[in-house]
Amino acid sequence: MAHPTIKYLDYGLLLLRVGIGIFYIFHGYPKLFGGPDKWETVGEVFGTMGIGFLPVFWGFMAAVAETFGGIFLILGLFTRPAAGLLFITMFVATIFHISSGDPFTTIAHSGKMAVLFLSLIIIGPGRFSLDNKINKRRR
After folding, report:
1. Is the predicted pLDDT of residue 86 greater than 90, yes or no?
2. Are 67 and 22 in contact (CB under 8 A)?
């Protein structure tokens, strides 16, 4: 018999994916549809890591990662790659906040999200996901 907490693991992962996915869709959508000016503003953050070229491209990619990453998390589709892109985005945001001298409470938000996405990469999407359905068909 499975341990009681293991029994509910997949429900917890579903709740985590859907909850975080919804927040990231709402977080990324305004950036994605903000146009080149918004993308440039977001992309300039990458300059803190020495990536000062093509800020519009990097800002657009961050907006895509947040918006579509959120959608993919909800669906449990391409969960690990989506979590990987979101991890990179949040890691860059954390470095930016540290280098800007922001207070710990500001740094902690993106830092916590980076840890969460790294954990999803390791754990995976769980049983209630399209990734799981697709992988079952391949077996």
Report:
1. yes
2. no
The residue range of the domain holding 117 is 9-138
What is the C-alpha to C-alpha distance for residues 49 and 34, in angstroms, rounded to an integer? 23
CA distances to 30, 101, 129 from 133, in Å: 32, 45, 7
Looking at residue 50, its pLDDT comes to: 80
Q: Could you read off the pLDDT of 52-84 as tens digits, one per residue? A: 889 999 999 999 999 999 999 999 999 999 999
Q: Whats the size of the chain, residue-wise?
A: 139
Q: Is 33 domain-assigned?
A: yes
Judge contact between 71 and 21, C-beta under 8 A.
yes
pLDDT tens digits for range 4-37: 678 899 999 999 999 999 999 999 999 999 999 9
Q: Is residue 57 part of a domain?
A: yes
Q: How many domains does the chain have?
A: 1
End-to-end CA distance of the chain: 25
CA-to-CA dists, residue 124 to 5, 32, 45, 70, 94, angstroms? 17, 26, 29, 15, 23
Longest pairwise C-alpha distance within the chain: 56
